[in-house]
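hi!! sorry for the late reply, been swamped w classes. u asked for the two structures so here they r. pasted raw, havent cleaned anything up. first the sequence of the first protein and right below it the tokens
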Amino acid sequence: MGCRSVNLQRGHSAKRGALTARRARFAAVDQLSPDLELHPLQGKPLTLADQVVMFHLVVVVVDPYTVESSWLLDTAGEMLTQFFGADCRVAFVATADEYDTRAFLGPWAERLLTYADPDRTLAKAAEVTELPAILHIDNDCNIVGRAEGWQPDEWRELAHRLAKDMSWSAPPIPKVGDPVAFAGSPAT
């Protein structure tokens, strides 16, 4: 009986440790500068503070010059559109100039808010190491969720946390036709 209770205790401790690790991944890990400039395809540059004053910001950062980002383009676009109407702003951030951003994103550049970031300002400030990546940024410019590369379990966890925070429905991740998990390309 004593061994059994020790095992149960260890099991409980291991579960608590795994839960703590998951929560840590979604804790406010970085605070971005509110003065960080974002360059929408339409309009003048805006600060990050301007973009999160009313709503959280959820961005998928892609690199138009790598195959890894192209593999996830439709999956990421469909995921972002699932949050239309939620209390968050969704967008693509492409690490390219305006011309290459439009060429890479195609119709997604018209359907979603899109930022061109040829200097990778956001990726560097957020200390992103792999692209594609998804970031959930709150009203205080804290990154409260991130996933890098395409790890469907991590993207699903972020989407479920976002959906809970927004009182919204989470999209199915992965869905039939999505790519298998893969490491992203270097972000810098």
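now the second protein. again sequence first, tokens right under
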Amino acid sequence: MSPPSPRKPRHGRLALMLVGLVTIMTGAGFAAVPLYKAFCQATGFAGTARRATAASSKVLDRELEINFDTNVANGMPWTFKAEQRKQRVKIGATSIAFFKVTNGSDRAITGRAAYDVSPDQSGAYVRKLQCFCFSEQTLAPHQTMEFPVVYFIDPGYATDPETKGWGDLTLSYTFVEIAPKPAAPATEKIAAPKRGEGLGSTPARGL
């Protein structure tokens, strides 16, 4: 009769499972913000305009009125304005809007624009080919820059039961200041000892 096979301790397996769970949850916490942003850009969720890689192949005769709203957050010393308050565009046609930003401070500032679309349901159909909101922007003291936004309204807007009856929508941008990254600590260089004057050495004497 063969001896019974040894059983693995249940406590050890439970500990390994808990460690694995904590690792997964920690990773999910760090990834939550970029994953949420990528999800919104891909689906138009929460009024987020979707990023496009190519223009629409179909242009409709129907027009929409696009309104532009600009803001800065938390007293950021930038002046941010749309150079046109509104545009009338055909659904599916590629359009371009311009925005002007001025840094009114005596220091360089980096900002990033958060954006959304109102009504929320329209976000899935606003497609952007180019936008300053895709990356951080740095302005030198008192510098002014002009940024284009190249976009179109997907033709699906005209057939979606939730949006087909709407005649206008608003693209809103809010610049938020990005805190500068801390400078890397300077490494102190240690001078090499002169010949004959190393640690523990005795200075040479002339004869």
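hope this helps!! also noticed smth abt the second:
The radius of gyration is 29 Å.
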